């Protein structure tokens, strides 16, 4: 089970919009039921990141992350999504790296 951290400024509004596109991408590529998404504020991302396989954020990457960062702005805007989609799909195929599976 992949654990995905999804962050925006408030932890709700823009990450919810990006979540819809992210879930669609994952489900269309056969990952339905093989991931869980936790939404948070960007200010919480660095502290929480050690427990997740990767972070998708609708803002710039915070410093000191414990997991890979994916630019989530394309998921929010619905434009130029290719590079972020490829990165997410690649991370879904890498072994889990969060603390729960080490």
Mean pLDDT: 91
- Proportion of strand residues: 15-25%
Tell how many strands the DSSP assignment holds: 4
* Strand arrangement across the biggest beta sheet: 2-1-3-4
Please work out how many helical segments DSSP would assign: 4
Q: In the CATH classification, which architecture applies?
A: 3-Layer(aba) Sandwich
At the first level of CATH, the class is Alpha Beta
Described by the principal axes of the CA atoms, the overall outline is: globular
The description of the largest β-sheet is:
4 strands, parallel
Rg, nearest Å = 12 Å
Oligomer: single chain
The arrangement of helices and strands along the chain is EHEHEEHH
The helix content, as a percent range, equals 25-40%
Summed up, the domain count is: 1
CATH topology: Rossmann fold
Q: CATH homologous superfamily?
A: Response regulator
**Secondary-structure content class:** alpha/beta
Straight-line distance between termini: 13 Å
Uncertain residue ranges: none
Can you characterise this structure?
The chain has four helices and four strands, in the order E-H-E-H-E-E-H-H. The chain has one domain: Rossmann fold (3-Layer(aba) Sandwich), CATH 3.40.50. It is globular. It has a four-stranded parallel sheet with strand order 2-1-3-4. By secondary structure, the protein is α/β, with parallel strands linked by helices. 39% of the residues lie in helices and 21% in strands.
Task: Write a concise synopsis of the structure shown.
The protein is α/β, with parallel strands linked by helices and 102 residues long. It has helices at 13-28, 42-48, 73-77, 82-93, and strands spanning 2-8, 35-41, 54-57, 69-71. Helix content is 39%, strand content 21%.
């Amino acid at each position: 089970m992949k654990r995905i951290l999804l962050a925006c400024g408030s932890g709700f509004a823009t990450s919810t919009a990006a979540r819809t596109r992210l879930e669609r991408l994952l489900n269309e590529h056969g990952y339905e039921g093989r991931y869980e998404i936790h939404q948070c504020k960007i200010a919480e991302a660095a502290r929480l990141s050690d427990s997740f396989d990767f972070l998708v954020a609708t803002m710039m990457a915070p410093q000191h992350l414990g997991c890979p960062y994916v630019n989530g702005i394309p998921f929010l805007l619905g434009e130029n999504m290719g590079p972020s989609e490829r990165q997410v799909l690649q991370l879904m195929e890498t072994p889990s790296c969060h603390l729960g599976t080490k």
